[in-house]
Amino acid sequence: MCGSLTLQAEQGLRCARLPIAEHAAALGMDAPGVRSSPVLNVSDVAIALIEAHRTQGDWVAALDRVIPARKRRPQQDRVKRPRGAEMAGKGP
Questions:
Q1: I want to staple 44 with a disulfide (CB 3.0 to 4.6 A). Which of 1, 40, 60, 89 is the partner?
Q2: Count of domains forming the chain
Q3: Whole-prediction pTM value?
């Protein structure tokens, strides 16, 4: 959702969310422990919007393109790495 619905209304801007939860089953996101609304970066949202437009509103195809497989697995199956672990042992 938009950061400020009041500001959005004052400026006459349209605010909406992607229909991820509505298509969770088709996207393989209906298993227990899988978030039905993953966080996407701005570029992935833009790609999803363009893809939905290109496919005449096929949200499953559009979202399938931008939601990575790691966000479709249950939370407990994910391997958590400490921040900076990939940089450990590398010199300046």
A1: 40
A2: 1
A3: 0.67
